[in-house]
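Researcher: Can you fold this with shikimate-3-phosphate in place?
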Amino acid sequence: MNVVNTLVVVGLGLIGSSLAAGLKQRGRVGRVLGVARRTETLQEAQSMGIIDAGALSLSELSGELVPGDVVFISVPTLAVESVLDECKACLPAGIIITDGASVKGSVLDAARRVWGVVPPELVAGHPIAGSEKSGVSACNPDLYVNHRVILTPVEETSIGAHQKVTALWQAVEAEVLNMPVDLHDDVLAATSHLPHAIAYSLVDTLAHDSDNEDIFRYAAGGFRDFTRIASSDPVMWHDIMQANQASVLDAIDLFSANLGRLRKAIATDDSEYMLGVFTRAKEARDHFTRLINKQAFVPKMQSKEVTYVMQPGGQVNGQIRVPGDKSISHRSIMLGSLAEGVTEVEGFLEGEDALATLQAFRDMGVVIEGPNNGRVKIHGVGLHGLQKPAGPLYLGNSGTSMRLLAGILAGQPFDTVLTGDESLSKRPMNRVVKPLLSMGARIEAEGEKGFPPVKITGGQSLRAMDYTLPMASAQVKSCVLLAGLYADGETSVTEPAPTRDHTERMLRGFGYKVSSEGPKASLKGGSSLFATQIDVPADISSAAFFMVAASIAPGSDLTLTHVGINPTRIGIINILRLMGADITISNEREVGGEPVADIRVQHAPLKGIQIPEDQVPLAIDECPVLFVAAACAEGTTVLTGAEELRVKESDRIQCMADGLITLGIKAEPTPDGIVIEGGQLGQGTVESYGDHRIAMAFAVASLRSSGPITILNCANVGTSFPNFAELAQNVGIKLTTQAQ
Ligand code: S3P
């Protein structure tokens, strides 16, 4: 169906002719009339089938137009005003006028000069598309597919005209956005006009440098990539720079100042400054590349959907090393940033959670090189060297990042806001807000449970305190201890049951004195952390999926190497052994203050047990996969004292029960645990509720299911175990992924 009967394109360059051709090819326009300065252009456009007829001036065609027809002005920016003059002189009432100029303030100013006001039929617009090629011969009917078109309607703009122009662009498969005029011109000055100015200036500089006659002969890919846009239409860009003068000058000034700083860093061998610029820029550019690779151009805010399709049966065999420990990876960035000197990390987990922590510290001015195959170099800024971030710190799915950071940020001189994804935005932060308030911090979260965003007002002096944890939580313990680094006097935390002690161990590794007496850990504020080397062991929480897999699948024999076996993390081994699992630990050693070992697991029949409550905090993240072990065990397994599971990335008691029941297992949730009767796992579709550990637990369950299992919403596996699917396939789990 036509979106417009007659379209007049004034200016048959790349932009105008591509819109005409795009509409024609899709059968969305009655006819296209062209206006060009030269008869040859009109002839060429007509012979290419882009226009049906043409003229050298708009007035020659205006008699053929009726209300609702559209005039699209695609001439160089400074020539738009003369076309608007012509429009005023010859167009009958009710003709919609739109344009494609790269600057919008100047077009609206021109309209005001011509008409005295912005006429309601004028809808200023800017397609963010194009190329260094110009002219009707460069015409591309698919130029706008998945590209953005920004419209800048003003108060006077008629709704009908705005709708029509929107429909026109949508008809050539563009995404239409609306923006205030000034914002458009500022954003484009920075993202488009400045890069063009620099590219033109660079090529001109090199071309005129007589000492460098051979420069183009030796110019390599970098030069080619960087300067492609210097082949663009000179008149068009001359006009844009003039039309957007103020915004372009601001962008050039900012860039010149930063280039000047970089020059100084190069002159004075300031490696840290250089690495800071280069690592931040690389990260930003890589992020952009990922966005544009995922979709043709428009990075729509779509959440990625990943489904695991599991075929039943199989066994797991071989030797694998799972990725680095998540808790230690987070802390290596945090403590490395707060230390004096350069900390080198190996085996860093490149999962989304730990990367969120890394990005947060980059946002606070810390220079971090990598991650590169698990290697990260952190240029510590000392306890008092963090800088105020430009905006809120976004921590994705990661509760650990948010809770531990809250402790650190409570002691900073600047304000911060911590935000997260949908799941994190529903997790209780009061558990850290309360003790931090008692220490004199100014911190607030939303509602009764204290949901994110968490707002921290800096510049408070923190008081040391003796805190008894109301729940066994390493995150809360760590938060208070980290705030204690900034408090006057000795801060102590007493826990109701042992929880992971990486914060205490790693602080000691960074040369900070932490004393532990039974359930109480204490430190005095005001000392310093010193850079160190960290070798992150493989994460026992990730290894747990394969430990259960090998235990439940007959014929399995799997070795997991270099796994962290910190005594506060080995609940999974203890519980599986109580259930009858065959686990051999060998090659025990210590790396960087953490015990590691190789773990061999062979299939063995499991039996249901009452899980000892003292093991629960030591296996808190492993419960989802333990429930799968329980479903495959003979008899009943009872878990109590695990209410913490209800406030993890999902309510892990309810969500696991739902999935197990779907698969035909008797599972009864209780307020603080679950009762599971071993049986035959069936087939079906289960939800992971976006919880990484639930997705992986059900993937393991397929080894003993009678039919296929489909697991929905698995993208978040990337938060803790980015190569899970690949490793699972390698050892024999029949997993395929479907991504949308
Ligand atoms: C973690 C502590 C645990 C755990 C989380 C990581 C840590 O949370 O579930 O995955 O690194 O301190 P709680 O301390 O809240 O139980």
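Model: Folded with shikimate-3-phosphate in place. The domain at 4-179 is CATH 3.40.50.720 (Rossmann fold).
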